[in-house]
Amino acid sequence: MLVERTLARCATLGMLLASVPFALSAAGDGPPVVVTTDTPEYCHRLIDRISELIESVSQPPPVTVSSLSSEGQRLCDEGHTRPGILRLRRALMLLEQETQSP
Amino acid sequence: MRILVVEDDKDVAGFVVRGLKEAGHVVEQADNGRDGLFMAASEAFDAVILDRMLPGGIDGLRILETLRTQKNTVPVMILSALADVDERVRGLKAGGDDYLTKPFAFAELLARVEALARRGKGEGPVTKLKVEDLELDLLSRQVKRAGQKIDLQPREFRLLEYLMRHAGQVVTRTMLLEGVWDYHFDPQTNVIDVHVSRLRQKVDKPFPMALIHTVRNAGYMLRAEDG
Amino acid sequence: MNDLALAVPAEATRHSGPAEERRVLPRTPDLLHSAGFRFAMVYAVLLALSAAALALYLWWATAGLLDRQTEAAIRADAQGLSERWNEGGLPALVITIRERLEQNVDDDAIYLLVDPDMQQITGNLRSWPDPVRRPDVLYELAVVRAGAPTLAQVQRYDLPGGYHLLIGRDVQGRAKLRQLLTDALLWGLIVVAVMALAGAFIVRSLFRRTLANVSATAAAISAGDFSRRVRVSGRGDEFDQLAETINDMLDRIGRLMEGVREVSNAIAHDLRTPITRARTRLEDAALHATTPDALHAAIERATDDLDGIVAVFHALLRISEIEAGSRRSAFTRVDLGAILADTAELYEPVAEEKGLHLAVEVPGGLAVTGDPDMLRQAVTNLTDNAVKFSPSGGIVRLFAAAVPAGVEIAVQDEGPGIPPEDLARATERFFRGEAARSTPGSGLGLALVQAVAHLHGGTLRLDALDPGLRATLCLPAGG
To answer: Which ipTM was obtained for this model?
Structure first.
């Protein structure tokens, strides 16, 4: 009886694991690959970009853009790079939309 | 007639063989299945009396089936202590021609064996039966004796027909019940006797010679009176 | 005397065998051989398999979906980028990649564009990850983001001119979700397994409880208590049907056993008489007969007595055979008109001699399903009785008619009939009323007729007429 139950459990687990997509090949070896857009440098790049766009437009930037970009800058300076980059990117996207629509 | 008796019970075998010899027949006997089968297969008999329960590994029904498979059509009378209907049917299905249960009256056995042997001789289909001056026409359903027409009811006709087909042989009451009325049990009263007596009134009484005789303790026989 | 003493030990050893077996049987079979356990296991396995199937589907629909979405996103991305490449070549591609990174509000995109020497042109990876060698294969890559290790899925694309493009997505969130889901489902399956086990035990005990009553009753019956019956719960379900069938069977066995007891008693009592008579005659002849003729006569009379006993045995066996009901397979459509007419015709001469008139009334085409031989024998027995007991000058009527319940066959006479106090017992084996004691017969005729009636699912009814008796066989039409 015990044998039957253990067999059943193994079969279930096996079925679950087997349905994981075969296309995935594990790649764990080699030197760690670093994503370069999570750094303070990228933060500043984004800030520069935002400023560029603001200057190219005659109107003053919308409130959301300003608040997002200042918040993003603050977070970056405090060391929370990823959240900061997130807000800067959002600000950038809003700006792009602004500049594209007349 | 040549008759083979296959029976292991010494008393019954002795009784039957003696009786058959006294009746004028040539009798061979075997007391086990193997010998019985051998004798039945290798010699020609007019009838075989076969007990169902036999020692020697081969029982009566097996012998019967073997004989029939060998296309041996010798008439076989089965003797058995097993009386129920299913066993009768089994015996007849196996190829038996008649089935008699023990204990039996010897007169019954003799009458039936003689009838069997006669039947086995295979007279072709007949349209007329004749004994002395009694004539029975099966096609026109008419009976004449000494040229005079006799009026018979259908069942009386069949009774007379049966007696005439077995002319010269003993016909027991059981045989008549089976052959004329298709009854396979014994009503225990003398119904048959009364039927035969009525037949006699029409067929025998008006004429000088009696043809239908009573055989004591056995049954009836239709034949010309001797002397 | 010595033989008897020797015989007893042999009997004893022979009987210990079956008794031994009987002690072993009622013990409950061990777990592996229990039918209740097998049923329970079937239930448990079915439950587990269904749960596993459900879990598998859920997993495919959720975690699987997430994976498929990632793949689709990467492909869409590649599509867009390749259009840019076609429109504006390398410069356009570079600009597009930068823009996409800048606007990647989902914070999950990974791009890397390298030249034929695998040197970075643009993107957010520093160098080409070693493991990613083959194009059009989705790789899982360990990446570091802001110092923390995460998981990404990437795919390589080879561009004309020897350039290579890597497009990927950060799947850490999705990987976490997938892990969560897998864990939850596995735990769920474990819970299901436990429930299946519990359910299995419940099923097995339900099974055992229902069967327990049946086996306990059967055990009590084989021990000899014949009054026990299986309990019927009143729900009318399959177990109740089984219980009722078993109870019917037990009732029938009880009746048969009763019958056997009755018959044994009757045989012992009623056959002693003719056997004693035959024996006495023979002994008397042996002691006192002086001439061979006298001896002959005595022997013949004794033979007749024995024949009578044999006939009684045959009749008894026939009745038992009929009661055992084994001949139902030979049932066929039987024409009642023919049977009554044949019987009347058989008894006509006897009736005529006694000055009796036989009248037959049967509607044409009346038939039942049954055994023709037995029905003929039954009608013959009734007619025989009627003719035997009728006074001269009377009338015996044989008639049959269709009734709502089936068919009735009746034989009616004007004889002395059966006194009311004897009517109930008239169909017992060997029963002979006072009035009949002097007439020939074994007392088995009506018993046989009743047995035939029962075999055909019907009854024998005796009605006292004034004067006379009417015996009616009531049979269902379909048999």
So the answer is: 0.80
